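Can't attach files on this board, so I'm pasting raw text. These are the components:
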Amino acid sequence: MPSFGAWKDQIKKTYKYYKDLSTLELEYVINKIIKNNKTVKKSVSDWPKILDYITAKFPKVDISNVPVYIVPHLAMYKSGINGNGCYVTHLDIILVSDKVYTVNAESKTVFNKIVNKCIGIELNVEDIVVHELLHAVSNRTGGLKSSKAEEEFVYTNCIPFYKSKGMTDKNIIDTIIIPFCFNDVMVDSDFISKMWNNVGVNIDEHVLKADRNKVYNKYAEQIVPIIVEESRIRAQNMIDLYYKYGQNMAHCNLNPKSGIDARLDTIDFGTEL
Ligand SMILES: [Zn+2]
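---
Top answer:
Structure tokens for the assembled complex are below.
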């Protein structure tokens, strides 16, 4: 689950970090995390409810042998793996931080502090474990071409599990899906430029990144609630589409204006599941 720390910049940094690392180096980093004396190796059977849930939902896929490493939060953060957890495709292993938050608690900018105030919350480790295991399911069925579709497949297919724990749509949106949708809104240039227009700021005047960051910090109190509100709409849209069209579809486009056409322009991997 990608946490959403310094938003775009952080994501770009992480992406670049991964890109710059050869597979060997990545393995070195992961090895170091795994060997940390506070890291605990678990197996999927340590979460019987999750195993039962995934087995019932995807009976042809076996994820029972995927090792799950519970990693000290700081070790995860220092490693450069930005997030609460990750599924390492080529090693077929899962790493999950022992403390998980919707928002990167280390972020120090005014903007991120306000985001943290609006939607930051501590999550349960098992909520991340189920998420990462769904990535393993996806990988075993060939994976999804776009990372957005991959994440949407994972987030939505976790919904019945969260509901089985007594969570409402609102709980699921506010704790689980909102970071993903927040990030989706942040990279939606149409929405963001309209938002700046409404606030009365010509963002194009601030071409330098440092300058742009200053504007985001200056107007954070005003814009973060707007972005959060739009994120909630998109998160609800994901849930609605999931219930309408089912587990085998990924919507790929979270914009609520896109309807059935966008939903159908997707990857259907029902046959493999
Ligand atoms: Zn994910």
